[in-house]
Please model this.
Amino acid sequence: MGEIIVNNIDDNKIEIEYELNYQMHKEFEKIIEKGISIKVLEEIKIIKERDYFFDKEIYSQKNYKKIEYHPLINKYYLHDRGERKSYLSLNELIIDINKKKQLQLKINKKDINNNLLIIDWRIEQNSLPKSLQLNLKKPDWLVLKTLTYSL
Amino acid sequence: MKYLITSISVISLALLIILIRSLSNSDFISGNTFQLLLRINLFFVVILFGFIAYQIFRLFIEVKKEITGSRLTLRLVISYSIMIIIPLMVLYFVSVSFLTKSIESWFNVRVESALEGGLNIGQKTLDLMRKDIELKSRSIGYSLSNISEEKFNPVLSDLREKFDIYEAMVLNEDNQIIALSSKEYTDIEQIIPEREELILANTGFHGKIDINDKNDIYLKTYLPFFTAGNKLKQKYYLNIVQKVPDGISQAALSVESVFEDYQALTYSRNSLKVIYQITLSIILFLAIILSISLALYFSRRFTMPLSILSDATQEIAQGNFKKKIPDQGKDELGMLIRSFNSMTSKLDNATKTLELNKQRIETSRNFLENVINNMSSGIVVIDYLKNIRLTNQLATKLLGINFELLNGQRFSQILETNPELDEIVTFINKSNNNFDSNRNLTIKIKKRILSLQLTKESNKKNANSILLIDDISEITAAQRNEAWSEVARRLAHEIKNPLTPIQLSAERIEHKFSQKLEKKDKKLLGEITTTIVNQVDAIKNMVNEFTEYSRSPILNKEEINIVNLLNDISNLYEKDDLRIIKQYKIKKLDIQCDATKIRQVFVNLIQNAYEAKRPEQHCEIEVKLKNTKQIIAIQFIDNGMGLQDDIDIFQPYVTTKNTGTGLGLAVVKKIIEEHNGIITIENNKVSGVKVEIIFKK
Model:
C-alpha cells in the first residue's frame, strides 16, 4: 500500500512525500520485456468533490515518464523530468520508482481545505503502440497506482 | 419510422466507416475512441435490430389479422432477405477466414526468427566490440601504469589515436579528471562518470554499453590501475568511451525497433483477430439489418398499390363506386391502377344512371300507386294466370280482404278467408283471355252494394285484367231516398187534402145527428167519429212526417252554443226512468247550424233511445262531446236493446218499433248530412247502441 504524507503546509505551497509501492503487473512486465516503450503519466491533483456534478479540479500537475527496454544492450531506461536512468533489471527500475518522492505543490493554503489530493500513476492508452490500443476493454494494468489523501 | 431507420442506418454507416479507418490508420483515432466507436456502433446495431424486429413483429401481426397485402409483403421480405443474407454470410465467413489467416501470416516463425537473429547479430557485434575495447583498455591501462602522472596526457592521446578510440580519460580516486583525450570537442561536465561506475570498476574491470538520447551507442569501460614508479602507489581509473559506428548502431537500433513493433503485434495478435472479427461482424449485422429494412421498405412499397387495389376492390364489391386510388407511377402497376380508376368511374356512372332510372321507376310507381289509391274505385289487377298483381287500398276496404298478403297469389285464395265472395271468384274465373267487352257484376257485401267491372288491359295475349270495384250503396240509397221523397211528397199532397174535409165531416155528422139519436146510438156515433178524427190526426201526423222527409234542404244556419242546446234538451227530457248523463265539462262550443233541425236530431235520438229501453230497467243515455282541431263529435250511448246487425236503421221505413213510421232516423241522417256531417250507429259491447255525430270544422 502506497501512502501520501503531507509534511508542511504554507500559505502558498504544500510539501508532500509519497511512496508508490507499486507491485509489478505481469502483463506490464511482459510488455516491457518485449521491448515495447511505455509512457507513464504521473498526475498530481487536488480536487473538490461534488455530489451532483463533476469534481472541481483545483490543482493539477502532470509529469510524463517513459520506461523502455533495449534488448540489444539488455538495459532498462527510465526517462523522468529530463533525466535518463538506466537499469540492468526491471526490478531495479521498479525499486527506483517505489522510492519515497518529495514534492512541493504551489497552491494557496485556503484552496486545500477539505479537498482531496490524488496522485495517479497510469499508462495513457493513446501513447501505446496502435496494436496495443485496439482492445475491446481497457486493460487493468494501465493504472499503476492511485493514492489519495484528504486534506 | 422509416426516417428513423434511415437516420440510424446512415449514422451507423458513418460510424462504421470511421471505425474501419481507425483500424487501418494509427494516427486517425486513439484506442479510447476506437472502443467508444465500437460501442456506439454496437448500440446502433442493437437499436436497428430492435426496430427491424419490431417491424417484422408488426408484419406478423398484420398477417395474423389477415390485413390485405401483408402475406405478400412477408413473402417478399423473406425472399429478399434470403437473397441478400446468404451471399453476405458467405462473404463474411470468407473475409473472417482470410483476415485470420492474414493476421497469422504476420507472425510467421521465420519472420520472428529473422528478427531475433538480427537482434542477436547486433548483440554479438556489440559484444565483440565491447571485448575489443576491453582489450584496448587493458593495454592502455598497462602502458599508463608504467609512467608518471605528468606523462598521462601525451601518452593517452597517442594511445587513443593509435587504437582509434573515441574518448579516453584518466580519473583519480576522487573522480577528478587527470588526463583526457577525445576525438571531438567534449563538455567535461557531461562526461565525468558517476562514482558508482568507479566503485564497480574496483572489481578489476567494469564495462557497459549505453545509448544516448540521439540513439548513439557507446561502449564504456572503467579500468583501475596503479602507477609503478613511486614508492607510494597511486590508484587511477582509465575510462574509455568508444562510439559504435553510426551504420552499425542505426542498423542494430532499426532491428530493435522492428523487433519491438513485432513483439507489440505478437502481443496483441488475438486482440487484433477478435477486433477485426467483431468489426466484420458489425458490418455483417449492419448489412443484414439494412438489407432486411430495405427488403421491408421495398416489399411494402411494392405491395402497397396491390393492397390499396385490393381494399378498393372490396369497397367496390360493397357498392362504393366512388373509390379512387392515387396515381402510383408509370409502371405496370400504375397502368393497372389507372385502368381500375377508369373502370370504377364507368361503374359509378352506370350506377348513377341505374339509380336515376330506379328513382324514376320508383317515382312512377309511387305516382301510379297514389293515383290508384286515390281513385274512387277499388282496383284489382289480375294477370292471365288469375294471380293478383296489383290492388289499391279501396279494393281492400270494399272487399274486406288484406290484399297485401295475397299479392302474387291466385285470386281464388280470397275464398279461404272470405267464402262469401265466391260469386266474385266465379265472375273472375268465368272470364277468359278472349273476352272482348267489359263484364259487370253488382253484388251486396256487408251492407254495401258493389259494382264490379272487369276489363282487359290490352288486346294482347296474356294481358292483365283490371277489376274495378265501386261502392254504389250511397248512389242506390240516394236514388231510393229520392224516390221515397217523391212518393212522400205525392202522398202528402194527395192524402193531406181530403183529410181536413173528412175530419170536419165526421165532426159535423156527430154534431148534427148526436141529438137525434138514442143514447146508445149516440154513444156509438161518438165513438165512431172520435175514431175517424183520431185516425185522421194519425194520418195527418204521418203525412207531416212524409212532408218533413221530402221537404227541400234549406237550412237556417246560425252560430249556437251546442252545449247549451244539449243541456236544455237534457233538462227537458229527463224523468224518472230516463237519465241523461252529461260526460262533458266544456261550457261553450259554438257550431254553425240550423238550431231547430239540430234540436230535432237530438230530441229524436233521445226519444229513440228511450223507446228502445229494456222493459225491466231505466233508460240511461251518456252524452259525450269531443272537440278537436278537425272535428266536433257528439256521442249518445244508451243501455237499450240495441240493433239487429243486418238492418240499416237510417234507411226510410226501416224500424224496429211496432208503431214507428221508420222515418225518424232517416230524417236525422238527412239533417246531419245537410250539415255536412256524418252519423254512425253501432251496438255497444254489452248493451245498447252508440250513435256518433261528427261535424267537420
